[in-house]
Amino acid sequence: MQEIPVSDIISLTWFLASWAGYTWYADRYARRERSLRALMHAYREQWMRQMLMRDNRVMDVNILRNLLQSVGFFASATLLVLAGLLTILGSTDRAIEIVRALPFAGKTTLLQWELKLLVLCVIFVYAFFKFTWALRQFNYCSTLIGAAPTGPDDAFARRAAEVATHASKDFNQGLRAYYFSLAALGWFVSPWLFMAATSAVVLVLYVREYRSAALRMLDAAATGEKK
């Protein structure tokens, strides 16, 4: 059996450490004041309080339906991607020849090729589990809306918002897997491109969740400031 090059091991380790590290950072600081997740949780609590004051909750059900459709779309798309990856595994020789023809692509052995495809498969399996768990939690949220009392109830609103936020967290983690899968495509060209793409994905995710214009607008709306 041919050995895996050290450069591939280093790049894969960097990839896993970057993904796990960013996930840990995002979850640890998710509730701090200046983050998209913290602001959206505050808006969900406000939504649930408004929902409790409505006799007709058709609008709330429609909002949840839109969320469920988005998550369901990605869950279905993930299965299609997995089917495509398994198909490629069955035609490795032809696929290797195509990759070797790419400019700047390094030499790829059968063992390296299968390792890279298996890593992509694991990424999308992880994404599928996250999306389907998010679907179930949004369904639980719809049940809470159906069972909600009429009138102010801060405790109930907080619980319903927590369920919706946990569902959104798993949905976001599934989407994050898609971002990192794009970085993993760079591995087919070069392990160093793989590392650079991984770093770029972490930077893009950080900017969007903690330094984006959307965050500033949501923060301004929450605090009543005009920016």
Q: Could you give the topology of this structure?
A:
Layout: H1 6-28, H2 36-52, H3 58-89, H4 92-100, H5 110-147, H6 154-185, H7 191-210, H8 213-223
Helix pairs in contact: 1-7, 2-6, 2-8, 3-5, 5-6, 6-7
Report on this model:
- 23% of the residues are buried.
- The chain has eight helices and no strands.
- It has one domain (6-223).
- The termini are far apart.
- α5 (110-147) runs antiparallel to α6 and α6 (154-185) packs antiparallel against α7 (191-210).
- It has 227 residues and is an all-alpha fold.
- The model has no long low-confidence stretch (mean pLDDT 86).
- The protein has helices at 6-28, 36-52, 58-89, 92-100, 110-147, 154-185, 191-210, 213-223.
- It is elongated and about 65 Å long.
Summarize the structure.
The protein has 227 residues and is mainly alpha-helical. The chain has helices at residues 6-28, 36-52, 58-89, 92-100, 110-147, 154-185, 191-210, 213-223. α1 (6-28) runs parallel beside α7.
